[in-house]
Amino acid sequence: MSKIKRWNAIAIALAMASATHTAVAQEVAAIDPAGETTDAVQAEAAKSPEPAIEAFHKGLLEIMKEAEALGIEGRIEKLAPLMASTFDLEFMASKTVGRHWKKLSDEDKLRWSEIFARFTIANYAGRFTGFTGEEFVTVGVEDGARGTLRVLTKIVIPNEDDVQLNYRVIEKNGEWKVIDVYLNGTVSELALRRSEYSSALKRDGFDQLVNTIETKIVDLKAKDQAES
């Protein structure tokens, strides 16, 4: 399997799963990412979101080229500040547990935000495990729901089909932040996480959900180390 074929496999798997999550995806698309941000504010944004995404891709490529030497722990260390500056991880964390977010204590909100960020970063570190000539290409920008934009990109892979990778972004405090990623162009990762986590929280409780995500992080690291 090529170093980035995992994205193809993930995209296909998520595309298959999306049929059962259409309602959830529509719900997430309707979420107001920032109550104080209106369409008028969005229209007045002075700069395009493309440079922010391209800077993220540049950093990601650098990590991919060093992936083997870095190992998964090294990739996580380098990805953490890159993703923190590109993604609104706190917002994403709050939306992945749905209406349960308001019921969590301040301590548990912080705990969930931290574990969600750790898992998201580890997940990226587990996906991008090397470099075989891949190139990120920005295709364009289109309007999204509720004052957001979608930056359309693709991963060009030598001797493989391109992989669509689109970002939903919001302008906050003069900066563009990613609040969702669409694999295969249309499959909302936030919607899938929300479906999984909110159901698990309702079924098993908050502590068990956190323990489950902790286990997933451990498993990601072990799998990567076993394959390296």
SSE blueprint and pairings:
Elements: H1 5-18, H2 22-29, H3 39-43, H4 50-65, H5 67-86, H6 89-96, H7 106-127, E1 135-143, E2 149-156, E3 163-172, E4 175-183, E5 187-188, H8 189-204, H9 206-227
Antiparallel strand pairs: 1-2, 2-3, 3-4, 4-5
The average pLDDT is: 85
**Strand composition percent:** 15-25%
| CATH architectural arrangement | Roll
How many strands, which pairing sense, and closed or not: the largest β-sheet? 5 strands, antiparallel
Give the SSE order as H and E letters: HHHHHHHEEEEEHH
CATH topology, by name, is Nuclear Transport Factor 2, Chain: A
Tally of helical segments: 9
Morphology: globular
How many discrete structural domains?
A: 1
Describe this structure in words.
With 228 residues, the protein is an alpha+beta fold. The chain has a single domain, classed as Tgt2/MlaC (Nuclear Transport Factor 2, Chain: A, Roll), CATH 3.10.450.710. It contains 9 helices and 5 strands. The protein has helices at residues 5-18, 22-29, 39-43, 50-65, 67-86, 89-96, 106-127, 189-204, 206-227, and strands at residues 135-143, 149-156, 163-172, 175-183, 187-188. It has a 5-stranded antiparallel sheet with strand order 1-2-3-4-5. Helix 5 (67-86) packs across helix 7 and helix 6 packs across helix 7 (106-127).
